[in-house]
């Protein structure tokens, strides 16, 4: 069902995204990034892909990971669960895993429990999984959802994932890495793709940039979704919904789902969805504005139509009641781009815009 609010797992529930699935399935780049702001459908695309291919995968939801703790122990626990999931579908891997110094195997269950303080090296674990994969003529996928969060492991006694990725990239052809990121710039900075002294520098990395649905696609999405559940809303309300929610699929689903719940589709339902969506975004933004009020002012300027570097800066100076330096303004604007709140379009001039219509509404209020 298109309006199911959970991340999709089956192709029949995934609207469009055929091109992206095809890219994932046919690509053999050692590392693939799936990039898009929040609620554009990254996890759904990933789930459907993982469900369809026969290759085994290790899937780490980095949000779940850091909710617990950014410690080695927690990461190894997630990793062990995933390895045990693979063991359950192919016991042969045990013969290979046995080679890891510091692994314990009880029956069909592996653990690093006794070695919590100094567990086997991750590179060594990946090497063994690689050898098993190559021997079985398969590729194992190492998947991190919201991978920019892995940067919080990069401290003394933590885990350097960029080192791990570059080791895998260069040496382990039986493993493919897939990362998603809603903070696109933050993820790229973390990987250091463009930094000469980063271990990932100069590596070819395949990118899938998910975009919003166009207006027509969004209307089609809603029409199809309502058809599935036997509802026939008026074209006018669908137009209104798409105008308000734009092609952000997460919001469109929220609208459809609310209509299903209430068994009707009208202005009131749309308004209710808008209020709920605004609440969600407001909470996210409050966290951001704690770091600097300038984030608020830039988004506000954008929401009122300023869209060039100088017009946004001028508006921000007006809200702040004082001048800011070019460098400090650019830094804050770039952070917003990095985190996915602001998109840049390149034409004659660089044009900046808010990537989510609900964010624009919230900062306007
Ligand atoms: N192609 C699609 N067809 C139908 N529904 C979709 C599609 N993509 C996403 N959705 C729905 O939109 C919502 C957000 O999707 P999802 O969680 O996959 O996005 P995301 O980009 O991973 O978001 P986040 O950044 O919050 O993790 C969910 O309700 C999901 O079911
Ligand atoms: Mg997601």
Describe the model.
- The protein has 365 residues and is α/β, with parallel strands linked by helices.
- It folds into three domains: 11-209, P-loop containing nucleotide triphosphate hydrolases (Rossmann fold); 215-283, Helicase, Ruva Protein, domain 3; 292-364, Winged helix-like DNA-binding domain superfamily/Winged helix DNA-binding domain (Arc Repressor Mutant, subunit A).
- It contains 16 helices and nine strands.
- The chain has a five-stranded parallel β-sheet, sandwiched between helices. A two-stranded antiparallel ribbon has the order 3-4. Strands 8-9 form a two-stranded antiparallel ribbon.
- α9 crosses α10 (235-245), α11 crosses α12 and α12 runs antiparallel to α13.
- The longest helix is centred in the C-terminal third of the chain and has 25 residues, at 267-291.
- The chain is globular.
- The two termini are 34 Å apart.
- 36% of the residues are buried.
- The structure holds adenosine-5'-triphosphate (ATP) and magnesium ion.
- Adenosine-5'-triphosphate is lined by residues 2, 4-8, 14-17, 36, 38-44, 182, 249-250, 253.
Topology:
Blueprint: H1 18-26, E1 31-35, H2 42-52, E2 57-61, H3 62-68, H4 72-89, H5 93-97, E3 104-106, E4 109-111, H6 122-135, E5 140-145, H7 161-171, E6 175-181, H8 184-191, E7 206-209, H9 215-228, H10 235-245, H11 249-262, H12 267-291, H13 293-303, H14 309-320, H15 326-338, E8 342-346, E9 350-354, H16 357-364
Parallel strand pairs: 1-6, 1-7, 2-5, 5-6
Antiparallel strand pairs: 3-4, 8-9
The structure holds adenosine-5'-triphosphate and magnesium ion.
């Amino acid at each position: 069902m298109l309006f199911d609010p959970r991340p999709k797992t089956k192709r029949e529930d995934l609207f469009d995204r055929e091109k992206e699935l095809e890219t994932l399935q046919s690509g053999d780049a050692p590392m693939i990034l799936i990039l898009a702001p929040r609620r554009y459908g990254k996890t759904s695309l990933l789930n459907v892909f993982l469900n369809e291919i026969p290759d085994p995968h290790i899937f780490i939801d980095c949000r779940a990971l850091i909710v617990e703790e950014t410690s080695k122990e927690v990461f190894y626990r997630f990793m062990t669960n995933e390895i045990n999931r693979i063991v359950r579908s192919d016991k042969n891997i045990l013969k290979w895993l046995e080679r890891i110094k510091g692994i314990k195997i009880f029956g069909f269950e592996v653990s690093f429990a006794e070695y919590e303080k100094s567990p086997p090296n991750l590179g060594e674990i990946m090497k063994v999984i690689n050898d098993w994969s190559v021997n079985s003529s398969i590729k194992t996928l190492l998947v991190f959802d919201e991978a920019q969060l892995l940067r919080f492991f990069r401290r003394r006694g933590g885990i350097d994932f960029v080192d791990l990725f570059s080791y895998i990239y260069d040496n382990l052809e039986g493993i493919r890495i897939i990362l998603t990121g809603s903070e696109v710039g933050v993820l790229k900075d973390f990987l250091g793709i463009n930094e000469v002294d980063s271990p990932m520098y100069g590596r070819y990395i395949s990118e899938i940039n998910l975009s919003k649905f166009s207006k027509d696609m969004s209307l089609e999405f809603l029409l199809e979704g309502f058809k599935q559940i036997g509802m026939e809303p008026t074209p006018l309300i669908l137009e209104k919904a798409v105008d308000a929610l734009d092609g952000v699929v997460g919001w469109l689903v929220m609208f459809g789902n609310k209509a299903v719940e209430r068994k009707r589709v009208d202005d009131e339902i749309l308004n209710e969805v808008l209020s709920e969506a605004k609440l969600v975004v407001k909470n996210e933004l409050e966290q951001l504005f704690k770091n600097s009020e300038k984030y608020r002012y830039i988004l506000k300027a954008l929401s009122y139509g300023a869209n060039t570097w100088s017009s946004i800066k001028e508006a921000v100076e007006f809200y702040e009641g004082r001048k800011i330096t070019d460098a400090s303004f650019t830094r804050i604007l770039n952070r917003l781009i990095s985190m996915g709140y602001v998109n840049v379009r390149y034409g004659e001039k660089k044009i900046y815009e808010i990537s989510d219509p609900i964010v624009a509404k919230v900062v306007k209020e």
